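Q: Hand in one record:
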Amino acid sequence: MKVNTIVNRYIFKQLVPIFAINLFFFSFILLMKQMLEMTNFIVNYGVGISSFLLMLIYSLPSFLIFVIPMSVMISILLVFLQMSSENEIVALSSSGLSIYGLLPPVALFCLMGCIMTGFMTFYGMPKGQTELKRLLFNVISTTVEIGLKERTFNDDFDDVMIYINKIDPQTHELLDVFIEDQRTKGVASTIVAPRGRSVLGLEKKAFYLKLRNGSIIQTSLENRSVHSIHFNTYTLKLDLTQPAADQTEEAKDEIEMSFNEIREYLDKAESYGKQYTKVLMEFHKKFSFPLACFALGILAIPLGVQTKSSKKAAGLGIALFFFLLYYLILSIGWGLSESGFYPPVIGMWTPNVVMATLGVYFLVRVANDRPVNMLFMLDAVAFYVVNRLKKRKG
């Protein structure tokens, strides 16, 4: 019992630092794409570094729900891969400790990952998405005029297209303004003005363009008539998106809903349409993603134990293959659930069931000294793909 306790502590202490490294590495990789997209706010809206960093922080929970289970799997794999390559697994087996005796520290480690992922799905992601929307609104509402670029068609506002030939760098006056306004049903309005100025409303929920000495050409699509109006001054109001804090529960996206709001929506829903399906999927996601840590963690043990010392890179490649398989099954299930092909509970839980089943099957075989030759399986898949590509080229 004492030896078993020492081994459990040894394994757990090996898992934690590797997990921290993996968590940082994979988070950074996934955030790179987000960082490139967010540089648009620095270039077009003059966003400061502090706001930019806040955007990244608020976006992080939506990545961590995938990164944490992946990091759990890779950490377990690397630890058992190292123990296998140094013959520590063989030594423990010789002392009477089976592979099942190594499960307690792994289970505790998976529980830690499950709690972290659960915190992100239940609290971090809804809060992060809400605060991100609020921050984006504040950025756009306070610097929206910066988004109006010279000789660029701006369609940030619904049913309104704005083109400005030149902006005076000293007075910020807009020169040669062209606007296409289709917000009125059945009427297309074309506004042309030589000069104008952009003004943000005091309530920060509307953006105004004050134009001078221009013309409005209104075309009625129903009557096929055209009216032309000349004006000395004309103010065009453009509504900005309401901040997330002012939205009603019905207007929230499912990803922004708290768990209580999701349950309340599902209980009160009168119809079972597309929105109901999305909310139900979000409900199951809050449980299936955290429990994926256990499914992938169990699978990682035999993957690490069965890999020989000369094939460490291959063992890591196999782990990445199975995680991509998990993500592929999840993506397919997500799409089929949204389309109504089958219930969301199947789409959200099938990846966990598949990975857990494979993990238990491989673990039992490894424990009984009947390792599965997964390298041979991958070679067979690669051989099939290569042959298909050769036939296409031929």
User: Anything to note?
Assistant: The chain has two domains: 2-140+255-393, 149-243. The longest strand covers residues 206-220. Residues 2-45 form the longest helix (44 residues). The beta strands are 153-154, 160-167, 174-181, 187-200, 206-220, 225-239.
